[in-house]
Design goal:
Layout: H1 2-18, E1 32-38, E2 41-47, E3 54-56, E4 61-63, E5 75-78, E6 85-89, E7 96-102, E8 109-115, E9 120-125, E10 130-134, E11 141-149, E12 152-161
Antiparallel strand pairs: 1-2, 3-4, 5-12, 6-7, 7-10, 8-9, 8-11, 11-12
Length: 162
């Protein structure tokens, strides 16, 4: 009986070396598509994606479809002509985000943090050249940090919380 188990164990052991995990690479089967590049711009598109649907709950968003990018945008919008620089870091964030101000007048500035559905999470005044916004206790996901002066939005950031 012992001699019959040895070949079986040897075969199972060697089969384990030939097994590997499945990997998926982004690909699409479509009726048409293309890509192009210009000065400071690139675009890629597909035609004929029959099934595209989005499912959403409090924690995540799942979009079916084939042509999806891997981009992470950090600065979304900035009012032209600002006399100072605003930055938000680190991004992606774990525990907090620093809002840094540099080179100029930055009085009467406020921040608002909203979730992906537009609900305000927190807000406050920017004080000095560095303000820290705590992300402790927030769920992982995408948040928007909106900077305003006297009620007018001057810059917004997309912040990813790990």
């Amino acid at each position: 009986m012992k001699n019959k188990r040895l070949p079986l164990l040897l075969i199972l052991f060697l089969a384990g070396f030939s097994l590997h995990a499945q990997t998926l690479s982004p690909s699409v089967v479509s009726s048409s598509g293309g890509q192009g590049q210009g000065e400071g711009l690139s675009i890629a598109w597909t035609l004929g994606e029959i099934i595209t649907e989005t499912f959403q709950n409090d924690e995540l968003i799942l979009t079916q479809g084939f042509h999806q990018t891997d981009l992470v945008i950090t600065s979304i919008d900035e009012l032209p002509g600002l006399d100072f620089e605003i930055s938000a870091y680190p991004n992606p964030a774990s525990h907090h985000v620093n809002i840094g101000l540099k080179d100029g007048e930055y009085e009467n500035l406020r921040y608002r943090l909203v979730d992906f559905q537009g609900r305000e999470i927190t807000n406050g005044n920017l004080e000095g050249t560095l303000t820290t916004v705590s992300f402790s206790g927030f769920r992982s996901g995408v948040y928007f940090l909106l900077i305003s002066r006297e009620g007018q939005e001057i810059k917004s950031f997309k912040i990813v919380k790990n």
